[in-house]
């Protein structure tokens, strides 16, 4: 969902991105600050002053959320966990990690870094509002609102439901104590789902009480939390099942090879219809030229089948995604999902040594999860 968006630069070597949904929040925040908070609290302000204060506060809120996310990422990078990008979206920010922390201590520090940053920022803004003398009312008003919102942000993120920061802190403590990551994740994500449901219920109650904007918003956040919590547990359980198993164990090796000079009609009649196989390495004098699958064949119009050759329709070797026989099954599943393909050639030393299919992987997973193995 967070793939779309615009790039806004880099910090600490990490690309920063804005998801389109972030703009909705920005407009809502600026509008509600200008039309609501500032113009009600400071009735002596002109409309222009309120608008400028709204925009400045919105931008500083954006900076605050970014600082929170950056601190998560900086701590992660210091522990050797690569961060692909930070994306700001409708509910805040996410740091996209390609791997999860391998020790509970690392996750603990990483999870806590964000809310601590928000607390410190909140403290600084409130201190300027309260203590610094001679500050114009305009700046005081902005600092007051940002001070509280940062503290609320820290408090919300510290709710102990996975995948919120507080849930990560809880998971790291359970994991630290029990050494069982899967169990720790199950407990923390169940609490996360519970918090999600609670938000949805409170949201519905608010809607019935006539406070439908806040109610809808809360229910929406609750729904998002519940989804994120179940998805993170499923993903971990999946990785746990696949962990320690190699592509070699599951790949099919008896791939019938075909010649590039064959016409598609011949391939369909002589190979596909008789064997029921869906893909074939294309080989000429012991060199693998590419791979032809049913997917490639369907791109060619049926009348063209007698005239077009396998060479013309295949995916050339250079464009193929592949895995090595000794890579993890989790890696194979990730590539299949990311590329949205059904089978992946297994390549060793430039040769196709087998194929791994999504069907095989899925039945491997379902058998093992049914047996609880
Ligand atoms: Zn956070």
Q: What do these coordinates show?
A:
The chain has 373 residues and is of the alpha+beta class. The protein is 60% helix and 14% strand. It is built from 13 helices and 9 strands. Strands 1-2-3-4 form a 4-stranded mixed sheet. The chain starts with 5 loop residues before the first strand and ends with a helix. The site of zinc ion (ZN) has 5 residues, from α2.
List the helices and strands and how they pair.
Blueprint: E1 6-11, E2 14-18, H1 20-41, H2 47-78, E3 83-89, E4 92-97, H3 104-130, H4 137-157, H5 165-178, H6 181-208, H7 212-242, H8 247-250, H9 264-275, E5 279-284, E6 287-293, H10 294-298, H11 310-313, E7 315-316, H12 329-339, E8 343-348, E9 351-357, H13 358-371
Parallel strand pairs: 2-3
Antiparallel strand pairs: 1-2, 3-4, 5-6, 6-7, 8-9
Zinc ion is lined by residues 68, 72, 114, 157, 165.
């Amino acid at each position: 969902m967070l793939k779309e968006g615009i790039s806004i630069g880099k910090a600490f070597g990490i690309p920063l991105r804005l998801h389109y949904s972030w703009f909705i929040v920005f407009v809502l925040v600026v509008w509600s600050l200008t039309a609501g908070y500032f113009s009600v609290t400071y009735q002596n302000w002109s409309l222009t002053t309120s608008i400028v204060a709204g925009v400045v506060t919105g931008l500083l809120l954006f900076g605050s959320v970014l600082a929170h996310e950056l601190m998560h990422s900086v701590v992660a990078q210091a522990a050797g966990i690569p961060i692909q990008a930070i994306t700001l979206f409708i509910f805040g920010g996410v740091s996209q990690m390609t791997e999860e922390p391998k020790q509970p201590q690392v996750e603990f520090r990483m999870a806590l870094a964000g809310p601590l940053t928000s607390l410190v920022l909140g403290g600084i803004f409130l201190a300027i509002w309260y203590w610094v003398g001679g500050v114009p009312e305009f700046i005081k008003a902005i600092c007051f609102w940002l001070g509280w919102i940062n503290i609320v942000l820290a408090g919300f993120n510290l709710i102990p439901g996975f995948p919120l920061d507080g849930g990560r802190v809880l998971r790291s403590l359970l994991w630290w104590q029990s050494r069982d990551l899967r169990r720790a994740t199950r407990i923390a994500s169940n609490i996360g789902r519970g918090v999600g449901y609670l938000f949805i219920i409170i949201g519905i109650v608010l809607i019935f009480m006539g406070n439908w904007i806040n109610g809808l918003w809360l229910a929406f956040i609750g729904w998002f939390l519940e989804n994120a919590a179940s998805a993170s547990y499923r993903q971990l359980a999946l990785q746990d099942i696949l962990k320690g198993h190699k592509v070699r164990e599951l790949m099919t090796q008896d791939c019938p090879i075909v010649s590039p000079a064959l016409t598609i009609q011949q391939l369909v009649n002589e190979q596909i219809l008789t064997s029921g196989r869906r893909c074939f390495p294309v080989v000429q004098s012991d060199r693998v030229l590419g791979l032809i699958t049913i997917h490639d064949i369907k791109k060619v119009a049926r009348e063209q089948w007698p005239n077009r050759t396998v060479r013309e329709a295949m995916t050339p070797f250079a464009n193929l995604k592949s895995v090595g026989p000794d890579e993890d099954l989790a890696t194979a599943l990730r590539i299949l999902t990311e590329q949205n393909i059904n089978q992946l050639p297994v390549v060793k030393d430039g040769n196709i040594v087998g194929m791994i299919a999504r069907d095989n992987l899925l039945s491997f997973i379902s058998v093992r999860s049914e047996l609880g193995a």
